[in-house]
Amino acid sequence: MSSSSTHHHLPTSQAYDLWSQVYDTDGNVLQQLDDIYITTVLPPLITPNSTVVELGCGTGRNTLKLVEYGAGRVIAVDNSRGMLEKLVEKLGGGDERVEVFEVDLNRFYSDTTSSSTGGGSDGEEKFRKTLEGIEINGVISTLVLEHLPLSTFFSSVSKILPPTGWLLLTNMHWDMGAISSAGFLDTTTGKKVKPVSINHTKEEILEEAGKWGFVVEGGVVETGVRDLEHARGLGRRAEKWVGVLMHVGVVFRRV
Ligand SMILES: C[S@@+](CC[C@H](N)C(=O)[O-])C[C@H]1O[C@@H](n2cnc3c(N)ncnc32)[C@H](O)[C@@H]1O
């Protein structure tokens, strides 16, 4: 991966391994907009004792909300060990409602890693076995889509989620993606660390979702930093984003 005087481009899991040290504390504006959306939209989706799969759970920002809102079983996956370690720390001695697996979504559903070929990591094998014979009510994936090809993401969800199940998806908005991408300032090197990122437009997302049988339920919600007063409430890093749409959230239903 490439490096310049200001940026360090790394494979996604390596970038997040580094980011994990400050991911929960670096005042990320997108995470705050995500919190506002998730705390509104997620609770009504959770039926008592429902089973939810979380793709790209990271440090568990939303994993813990799933449990708090009443999910009976949460199966959370990510391919950054650093991010997962933070989630495991938050779970303390463990929570029997939450299972955590190290899984690379870019490989998991490709033919070459099927159990018949013996491919895949230990975490992927365990995740595959865990999914066997259980009914999943919903899938959540927040701020992950920009790191994956759309076909990889939606084909994976279509294999996990039965018809009538819900998918709650959030991502960096395409307007923000046109001028920026995920990354963080590594204070030890002074460089911006950048994982692999793809800017997906609204049309591309909805078209690919439709191919895999996902229909939008309740509309596509696009938000950003409205004005300086709004920015002040979101912290010092928000001011430069005034007027830019930064976050998109959508609930899909699999038909
Ligand atoms: C911006 S973080 C979001 C984390 C969490 N969902 C949240 O909202 O705070 C993106 C996450 O996606 C994960 N991710 C990216 N590509 C992935 C892949 N191919 N397989 C599994 N996880 C991936 C990263 O490791 C990281 O934890």
Tell me what you see in this structure.
With 255 residues, this protein is α/β, with parallel strands linked by helices. It is built from 10 helices and 10 strands. It has one domain: 3-Layer(aba) Sandwich (Rossmann fold). Bound molecules: S-adenosylmethionine. The site of S-adenosylmethionine has 24 residues, from helix 1, helix 2 and helix 5. This is Methyltransferase domain-containing protein.
Please give a quick description of this structure.
The chain is of the alpha/beta class and 255 residues long.
Tell me the layout of helices and strands.
Layout: E1 7-9, H1 12-19, H2 29-41, E2 51-55, H3 63-68, E3 73-78, H4 81-90, E4 98-102, H5 105-108, H6 122-131, E5 138-142, H7 150-160, E6 166-172, H8 174-177, E7 184-186, E8 191-194, H9 202-211, E9 214-224, H10 228-234, E10 245-254
Parallel strand pairs: 1-8, 2-3, 2-5, 3-4, 5-6
Antiparallel strand pairs: 6-10, 7-8, 9-10
GO molecular function: methyltransferase activity
Domain Methyltransferase: 52-108
Protein name: Methyltransferase domain-containing protein
Bound molecules: S-adenosylmethionine
Percent helix? 25-40%
State the end-to-end distance: 40 Å
As residue ranges, the low-confidence spans are: 113-118
Count of runs of 4 or more consecutive helical residues? 10
Q: What is the highest CATH level, the class?
A: Alpha Beta
Alpha carbon gyration radius: 18 Å
Question: Which class best fits the helix and strand makeup?
Answer: alpha/beta
Strand content: 15-25%
CATH topology: Rossmann fold
Order of helices and strands: EHHEHEHEHHEHEHEEHEHE
How many discrete domains? 1
Instruction: Assign an overall shape.
Output: globular
Strand order of the largest sheet: 4-3-2-5-6-10-9
What's the architecture, going by CATH? 3-Layer(aba) Sandwich
Largest sheet: 7 strands, mixed
